Amino acid sequence: MKKTFHCLKALGFEDENTMGLAALCRDEITDPLLNEVVKYWEKTFNCCSLAGFVMMGKTGLAAATNHVPIFDGIRRFTFLAMPHIAISRDGEIGKVYREGIHKASHACGALETIVNELESGRLNLQMDIEDLEQSIIRQKILSTINYGDKPNLVEMTKLACQIISDDVETLLHTLDSSIFKYAVMTGIQIHGPMETNWIYPYNFYVVGADLPGGKNVIEVV
To answer: Which H or E run includes 211?
Structure first.
């Protein structure tokens, strides 16, 4: 976060003129990353959902962008969107030991559920009105993989990262780049042993007005 903050500062993003948007999993163990977004960008619009998928839609985006401050005719925001995965102290993928719980639990549980469903060959393809987010995640993933594929949790998390990154790009492409200047940071949040946290970067780029060399899009990392 410190590295990206200073990199974006050179491109005109300051905590005073920029709003943060964060789409992470609702899991409480993602809070350290959400707290870092708030620490560096202060004003932050919460876009979180199961597994970090972007569920806000056009209405949510309109609400967020309407709250973005205007400085010198430009509205600036950063959008950080990531699924997450855990690695336990014993090197177990997807397992995490939470405070107050003696046995290992799961991260990300929503993605692991789909991994297990594919492995068992039993999938509920109906839209469940009482479980909308999980239903949408399942449909997005099944629309991306080939018939018969059974990705493991690491592969599933990387796939989720790709889907989330594409969804963010699709959602934001309608914004007027002469008014909006925004930075997108997608990847995977990794929870390691001893409460360590890491980022596996995927797409880090900036879109909008006043970019060096007259470019419309530049890569940050």
So the answer is: none
Cα–Cα distances (Å) from 141 to 46, 115, 136, 173, 194, in that order, read 23, 10, 9, 22, 31
Kindly report which listed range (72-76, 97-101, 115-119, 159-163) carries the lowest average pLDDT score. Answer: 97-101
Q: What is the pLDDT of residues 44-94, one digit of tens each?
A: 999 999 999 999 999 999 999 999 999 989 999 999 999 999 998 888 898
How does pLDDT run across 147-161, given as a tens digit for each residue? 889 999 999 999 999
**What residue ranges do the domains of the chain occupy?**
2-219
Cα 188 from Cα 198, distance rounded (Å): 8
Residue 26 is given by DSSP the state: S
Whether the model pTM is above 0.85: yes
Q: Which of 188, 160, 163, 202 is nearest to 86 (CA)?
A: 188
Note the CATH number of domain 2-219: 3.40.1050.10
C-alpha–C-alpha distance, residues 23 and 164, integer Å = 9
Tokens 């973005």 belong to 68
